[in-house]
Amino acid sequence: RIDGKRLWDSLMAMAEIGATPKGGVRRLTLTDVDKRGRDQFRTWCEALGLQVRVDAIGNMFARREGRDPSRLPVLFGSHLDSQPTGGKFDGALGVIAGLEVMRTLNDLNIATEAPIELVNWTDEEGSRFGHSLMGSGTWAGIYGLDKTYALKDAEGVTVGEALEGIGYKGEHAAKPFPADAYFELHIEQGPILEREGKEVGIVTGAQAQVWYDAVVTGQDAHAGTTPPSARKDALLTAARIIDLVDKLMRERGDDGRGTVGWLQVVNASRNVVPGEVRFSIEFRHPETAVIEELAAGFPAMAEAIATANRTPLELTQLFKIPHQPFDPGCVDLVRQAAARLGYSTREIISGAGHDAVYVARSVPTAMIFTPCKDGLSHNEAESIQPEEAEAGAQVLFQAILARANR
Amino acid sequence: RIDGKRLWDSLMAMAEIGATPKGGVRRLTLTDVDKRGRDQFRTWCEALGLQVRVDAIGNMFARREGRDPSRLPVLFGSHLDSQPTGGKFDGALGVIAGLEVMRTLNDLNIATEAPIELVNWTDEEGSRFGHSLMGSGTWAGIYGLDKTYALKDAEGVTVGEALEGIGYKGEHAAKPFPADAYFELHIEQGPILEREGKEVGIVTGAQAQVWYDAVVTGQDAHAGTTPPSARKDALLTAARIIDLVDKLMRERGDDGRGTVGWLQVVNASRNVVPGEVRFSIEFRHPETAVIEELAAGFPAMAEAIATANRTPLELTQLFKIPHQPFDPGCVDLVRQAAARLGYSTREIISGAGHDAVYVARSVPTAMIFTPCKDGLSHNEAESIQPEEAEAGAQVLFQAILARANR
Ligand SMILES: NC(=O)NCCC(=O)O
Ligand SMILES: NC(=O)NCCC(=O)O
C-alpha cells in the first residue's frame, strides 16, 4: 500500500515550483520554472537509487531494475509541465504518484520481476509550441525530431533552443524502445466521475482531435477615416470564424468540442483597423469520423468567411489524432486493481489528450482517472482531495505490480 | 515662401527616428524613441534661437517673439508620436512644417506682429494609454492632470512614470494660456482629396467619437473536457460584440465608423476555453447625435450578448467628443491662403481626431489637410509626395503670417 500522506506532501512540494497567487501553477514547458520541477524530480529519483536518463526531446526516464533481466520494462508516468495558469494536479499527479510507487517498493523491499520505469514527458500541454503531447509524440515517432526542434513559441524561441537553454537536451534517442506496458494516472479534468460519485475512472480510450493555426491578413487602416466599404478587418474575420467554431461544436451536441483558445492581434492599436490576426483552433469528439468530417468541411467554411471580408486566411493543420482505444489487457488490470481495493468505478473516455494516447501506438496502455472538483482543469482553481489522489495511486501501484510480476 | 526641399529633408531625418523595416515609423509616445524625436526637435528649435518650454504633460512649445508684446501668440503644430506601426507623416508633417515656417521667417528676417509658437503635443495617438489627444486634452483641461498621470499602458507603466522616465515632465502648467489662434497641418489620412484630385483640404471641423474599454470575464476551462453547455467562453462573447460593432457601423452607412482595434486574451492557451478577454471599442460619425445614439444604445446590446453567454461584461467609456466645428475666421484665412497660392481645394470634415479638436475649445482654430496615397494611414505604407507636403506648408505659412500680422 502506498503512503497517501507522503504522496500529498510531495504533490504540494512540486506545486510550490511555479506557484501562482491564485493557488495554481505556471510551469510552462522548457522554461526555468520547468527546469526547477525537473531538477526536483531528478533529485527525488536519485535519492531512491534510481538511474535517470534524458532523451533528445527532454523526456526523463527513472529506471528500477527487475529480477528478470530478460523482461521488458513496465512504464508509467505523466508530465510536470503546466498551462500558463494551470492547476497543481494536471500532470503532476501521475508523476508524483509514480514516485510514490517507487518509494513504496523500496520501503517494502519488493523486487519486481520486470524492470519498471517512471517517465516525465516533455511538453504535454502544447500551449507554448502548439503541439500537445510533444515529448511522447516525438518519442513515439509521430512528430519528427528535427521538425519538433524547429517549432517556435510566440517569442520565436525554438524547442531546440529552449531544451539547450535549460540543459535538458539529453543524449538518448527520442524513439520508442520495447516496453511491456504503460500506465498513466491523471485527474479526469471533466465533471463525470464527481457527478456520479465514482472514486476511480477506468479509461478505455481517448477522443479524436484536430488542431489548427490560423493567420488572417487584412490591412491596417485608420479607424476614423476608413469607411466600411474600404475596410479589410482581420479581427472581424477572426470573430466570425470564432462564431463558426462554436456553431460547429454545438451542432455535434454535448460531445462536441470546438475552441479558439489563443488569439493575437498583431501590432494592435485602438484606433487602427486590424491588419493581421493570428489564432488557434481545435475540435474534438469521441468519434474519429466526426473529426474527419470537421477536418474535411471546416477549412472551406472558414475560407468563405475570409474571402467575403477580403482578408485572406492561411490555415495550417498542426495535427490530427484519431480516437485511441487503450489495450484491453492493461485496462483489465486497472479494473481488477480498483475492484480488489474496493473503489467505486466507471468506464470513461478521456476528453483531454494524454501522453498515453501516443504511447498506446507502440506499447499496451491504460489510464486511471481520479475526480476533480467541479470538473475544472486548465484553471488555477483546479482541486482534488488527498483521498482521491491516494485512491488513484493505490490502483496505479497495484496495476503496475500485477503487470510487472505476471 | 517656404523651402520644400528643406522641409522634406527634415521630414526624412525625423522618419529615421524609430524607422521600421517596412518603411514606417514606430515612435510610441513617451518611449525612448519618442525622447529621441523630442530631443531632435528641441535641437532644431534652439538652433533657430527659439526658446523651448515643456509643460507638465510633456507638451513642447517653441516661441518666436513678435514686434508687439501686447499681442497674444499664434499657435501651430501637431505631434511627433506615432502608432505602433505607423507612417512617417501622421503628426510629423505638422510639426516639421511648423519648423519650416520658423526657418523661413528667420531666413527672410521677418518679424511678425504677434509672437508665434510651434507646439509638439504629447500622445496624440492614444494607442499606448487609451486616450487619444492626451497632451492637448490635458492642456485644454478636458483630461484632469492627476487622472492622466495615473493612466496605465498594457504593461502597467503610468503616464507619470513614463514622462519622468524620458525627462519630459516639464515645469510649466499644463493648462490653456490665452492665444490668438491655432493652425494645424496634417495629412488627410483618408481617400477624399486624392480621389477628387485636390491639393489642399480646408478642414471645417472634426467628427464626433466615443471610446470604450471592455473586459469580459468567463471561466478558464479545459478545451477537451468542457462540454458546450458548461462553457463560459469570454472570447466567444468578444467575437459577437466585434460583430455587433461592425453591424452598428454599417447601419449608419458610409459615414459610420466602428472599430475593435486592440484585443487581448488574458493568459491565452490553445487548449483552454478563454476566461478573460480585454478589448477596445470606438465609434465615430460626423454628427454628434449619431454618436449620442450609439453611446445610449450600444452598452445594453453588448451587455445582452455577454449575459446570454454567462460571461459578465465590464464596459468603461473612456471619452466622448462631440462634433467640433472650427473657427470660421481661421478657416477663412486658410481658404484665402490656398486661393492666393493657386491650389485646388475642397472643404472637408476630419475623420481622425486631432489636437486641434481640443485646442478649438479655448482658441480659434483651423486645420489644413494634404492628400495621402490611397487614403492609407496608421499603416507603415502611409505615403505623400514632396509637392503635397510643400503645398500644405505654404498654406500654413501664409495663414500664420496673415493672422499674426492682422
Ligand atoms: N491533459 C491535458 O490537459 N493535456 C493537454 C493536452 C490537451 O488535451 O489539450
Ligand atoms: N490623427 C490621428 O491619427 N489621430 C489619432 C487619434 C484618432 O483619430 O484616433
| Euclidean distance between termini CA atoms of chain A | 19 Å
Q: Portion of residues in helices of chain A?
A: 25-40%
Low-confidence stretches of chain A: none
Using DSSP, what is the number of strands of chain A? Answer: 16
Bound molecules: N-(aminocarbonyl)-beta-alanine
Mean pLDDT of chain A: 97
- Total helical segments of chain A: 12
- Order of H and E elements of chain A: HHEEEHEHHHEHEEEHEEEEHEEHEHEH
Pfam family, one (chains A, B): M20_dimer
InterPro entries (chains A, B): Amidase_Cbmase (IPR010158), Bact_exopeptidase_dim_dom (IPR036264), Peptidase_M20 (IPR002933), Peptidase_M20_dimer (IPR011650)
GO molecular function, one term (chains A, B): hydrolase activity
Keywords (chains A, B): Hydrolase
